[in-house]
Amino acid sequence: MAGFDKRVYSYEEAMQGIESGMTVIAGGFGLCGIPENLIAEIKRRGVKDLTVVSNNCGVDGFGLGLLLEDRQISKIYASYVGENAMFEQQMLKNEIEVVLTPQGTLAERMRAGGAGIPAFYTATGYGTPIGEGKEVREFNGRHYILEEGIVGDFAIVKGWKADRYGNVVYRHTAQNFNPMAATAGKITVVEVEEIVEPGELEPSQIHTPGIYVDRIIQGSFEKRIEKRTVRD
Fold first, then answer.
1. Chain centroid to CA 14: how far?
2. Is the whole model's pTM more than 0.90, yes or no?
3. Cβ neighbourhood burial of 33 (10 Å; 0-12, 13-18, 19+)
4. What are the DSSP calls for the chain, one per residue?
5. pLDDT tens, 79-132?
6. Which CATH fold would you assign to the domain 2-117+150-218?
């Protein structure tokens, strides 16, 4: 079974093959469940003109926000601007192309891409700027717009546990967009907190089967809190 061992032991090896101009799909929501070390490796490599697909762009100085600092992202599909002032400034100055996409639609575009579905119809966004220029059809008296599935050159994902064969388990809300992202990359790289021995993961609890995963790396994580709320 040695040929099925998907472990790599450096982030340089994990992101081998990424080039300027590629499309990167990133799991995570805000700072929850983001592949922070894989993002840092992309920054270190200095690749440019990236198209990024992610719910949002992290915060200033962390997560995908790191890639904004050196203008490495030229286009992003996201559901909101979030807490990132640099992202907002670059968008308002037309320094980055932002394709705002309803959150559920974004998740389904990833899932469709991973499932080999080129496009699907959704009622979400019809009659709004989101639907402008898109094909419209009527089903049972309701209008729907056509949205295309998304496939990335790379998908970068954060998991909780995995085995050497690439079977992945996510922890609680850190699951978020990660399972959809994992299916939609031509090359899918997952970083996890722990790599366990084969057989330790309960098969019924596996969220992403290893068939979707190309590389697994064990890392350590800062796990920042986006907004800390305490009592007075």
1. 16
2. yes
3. buried
4. -GGG--B-SSHHHHTTT--TT-EEEE--BTTBT--HHHHHHHHHHT--SEEEE-SS--BTTBTTHHHHHTT-EEEEEES--TT-HHHHHHHHTTSSEEEE--HHHHHHHHHHHHHT--EEEESTTTTSGGGTTS-EEEETTEEEEEEE---EEEEEEEEEEEETT--EE--GGGGTTHHHHHHSEEEEEEEEEEEE-TT-S-GGG-SB-GGG-SEEEE-------SS-----
5. 998 788 999 999 999 999 999 999 999 999 999 999 999 999 999 999 999 999
6. Glutaconate Coenzyme A-transferase (3.40.1080)
Residue with tokens 């709004």: 128
Which is nearest to 68 in space by CA: 92, 53, 86, 81? 86
Nearest alpha carbon to residue 55 among 86, 34, 39: 34
The mean pLDDT of 201-223, rounded to a whole number, is 95
Q: Report the alpha-carbon distance of residue 15 to residue 215 in Å, rounded.
A: 9
Q: Per residue in 45-87, pLDDT tens?
A: 999 999 999 999 989 999 999 999 999 999 999 999 878 899 9
Alpha-carbon Rg for the chain in angstroms: 18
Structure tokens at 232: 């007075």
